[in-house]
């Protein structure tokens, strides 16, 4: 990763605008060799180090421990900005921020205070072995400890993480258990098997858990071995779905900006069109205008839904099921639109950059590959179904791992 032409400001960000500017500085550094890093597919140790040095990993951390003290609407903008340069690193940052927030989602007040203090002061980078499609991780109660055994197909952030969020079900009751453990804990093995079409630097390979032993007091949200439920426990899904939305939009923005530069500097006008430059071609102008308008529209919706969600985050201990459900419907709507628009932008830019833009050295394909890979996370048709059912019958989505 090159830092020769760009550097981080020495001024510590304080306001949302300054944090978004810090994210833009990180993006500028990542953009320099994004194509080469995507092609190499190496473990992004340097990239995560940059996220730590920039302060972005502690963006949501308490200010009294050196964190940014920012809100989720700012965090989403930061994720989106980083993803304009590198979708993989935008995803890594987004997942990290979600798992950084995991204690607030399911923990007791004492656990929240402890985890956030330690995570902020030590600049922990979070990974998560929490793939809901795999239900084979079981948790045994062995007195003062619980023991995790099983396997997960995906564990984003694996080898670059300092700590990992584990999830499994208690053998006797089937109750879900979350715990945060050091990523080098005995029995936790990350497999170097992430080899997918896109998002190549997310370290999202599989993980095995072989007698990973954790003290009961680290089981998030449990008091005396009994889980203390609240509606806010289920906010992990709409929060992570908005993380998805924002790195999709960042990737799409990066694709459009990269294509625009290519059109202005390299594209040739069509020999039978009668125009001296590609930028004068009416169909080129029309398509850029169409894609920009669609992207602006979904960005605006994403920002509005983020602000709606922030009101729930600020009322975490009192939020109702109805408030949560109405928010999830809005999240589903923006997830569906962001998916469609990001796929359209990253695909159709080739129509206005031309045949030579498909050369590997240009790397324009990485934007589509990244969006196409991650938008398959869960079927967008089911997001539209949530919106349609609510519209027709007033039904609110039941909280699940995907809704």
Automatic annotation (TrEMBL):
Residues 32-113 form the Acyl-CoA dehydrogenase/oxidase N-terminal domain. Keywords: Monooxygenase, Oxidoreductase. Pfam families: Acyl-CoA_dh_2, Acyl-CoA_dh_N. Residues 243-377 form the Acyl-CoA dehydrogenase C-terminal domain. It comes from the Bacteria. One of its GO terms (molecular function) is monooxygenase activity. InterPro entries: Acyl-CoA_DH_C, Acyl-CoA_Oxase/DH_mid-dom_sf, AcylCo_DH-like_C, AcylCoA_DH/ox_N, AcylCoA_DH/ox_N_sf, AcylCoA_DH/oxidase_NM_dom_sf. Gene3D superfamilies: Acyl-CoA dehydrogenase/oxidase, N-terminal domain, Butyryl-CoA Dehydrogenase, subunit A, domain 2, Butyryl-CoA Dehydrogenase, subunit A, domain 3. PANTHER family: ACYL-COA DEHYDROGENASE, ISOVALERYL-COA DEHYDROGENASE, MITOCHONDRIAL-RELATED. This is Monooxygenase.
